[in-house]
Amino acid sequence: MEKVRLFRGLERTIAHSDEVEGILGDFTFEILGRARANLARHHKTGSHRVTQDKGRVDHFVHLEGPYSLAVENGWHKRDGSFVRGLDILKGAIL
Questions:
Q1: How far apart (Å, rounded) are the C-alpha atoms in residues 54 and 14?
Q2: Is pTM, for the whole model, over 0.70?
Q3: Facing residues of 62 across strands?
Q4: Rounded CA gap, 31 and 61, in Å?
Q5: pLDDT at position 1
Q6: Where would you tag: which of 8, 54, 61, 79 has the fewest CB atoms within 10 A of its CB?
Q7: What residues pair up with 53 in beta bridges, in sequence order?
Q8: How confident is the model at residue 31 (pLDDT cuts 50, 70, 90)?
Q9: Smallest Cα–Cα separation from 54: which of 91, 15, 10?
């Protein structure tokens, strides 16, 4: 059996390659479009918006605005009943 020698930092080299960067950017752009469409379906979007951001390697899609976590996941009213969130980002990924 031949010995296979992996290069140090191979994962980092692949992750920072132009091909991987392009694939991640395209996939993030698709999610961004679906998330914006999900938000646009609701008449009262307020000041919420869907944005895209890029780190050193990863790409991110954010729901920005006041109480965006509650808008996404839901919240409890004072009487204890639960109001379901809008699933803007989750609906765009799945």
A1: 17
A2: yes
A3: 51
A4: 7
A5: 63
A6: 79
A7: 60
A8: very high
A9: 15
